[in-house]
Amino acid sequence: MFLTDVLERNGVAGPVSANSKRHALQTVAELAERGLGIDSDIIFQGLMDREKLSSTGVGLGVAVPHAALKGLTRMHGVFVRLDTPVDFESIDDVPVDLIFALFAPEDAGSEHLRALAKVSRVLRQKSLRDALRQVDNADALYALLNQDHAQSTSAA
């Protein structure tokens, strides 16, 4: 699986402003609504329900919020870079500015887990995180995230 298997160009935004974790997740839900055709309130509630279990702030300024949503037939992703990091109750207490949200069909099972693992693995790369924090538009963010596909393909 490549990030571009779940992430479309219209699912990338940044830098955007948010003043809290809640506001950041609302922004993610609004962006996801455009690509998923599901009301942003439903998406937001799914994200918040998951956050109640434990924070999806995985450390290093990265969060990977996720939710299973009725009506989806495949995995979808949304990436948002915040202009200013927000407290996400991350495991390392570092505020989050890079958010890669995943949305799965209700019956996704192991596919959902594989996607979460892939996103986490890719965003652990310091060089990618640094590059994502340096660019100032969604096209450049998408291109950087798309490099994962290009590098994996050329290495094969």
Outline the structure in words.
The chain is an alpha/beta fold. The protein has one domain: Mannitol-specific EII, Chain A (3-Layer(aba) Sandwich). It has helices spanning 21-36, 40-53, 110-123, 126-134, 138-155, and strands at residues 7-16, 57-59, 62-63, 66-69, 76-86, 96-105. Strands 1, 2, 3, 4, 5 and 6 form a six-stranded mixed sheet that branches. Strand 2 (57-59) and strand 3 (62-63) form a beta hairpin. The longest helix has 18 residues, at 138-155. The radius of gyration is 14 Å and the shape is globular. 40% of the residues are buried. It holds the Pfam family PTS_EIIA_2. Residues 5-148 form the PTS EIIA type-2 domain.
Task: Throw out a few tags for this protein.
single chain; 156 residues; alpha/beta; Mannitol-specific EII, Chain A; six-stranded mixed sheet; 5 helices; 6 strands; disordered C terminus
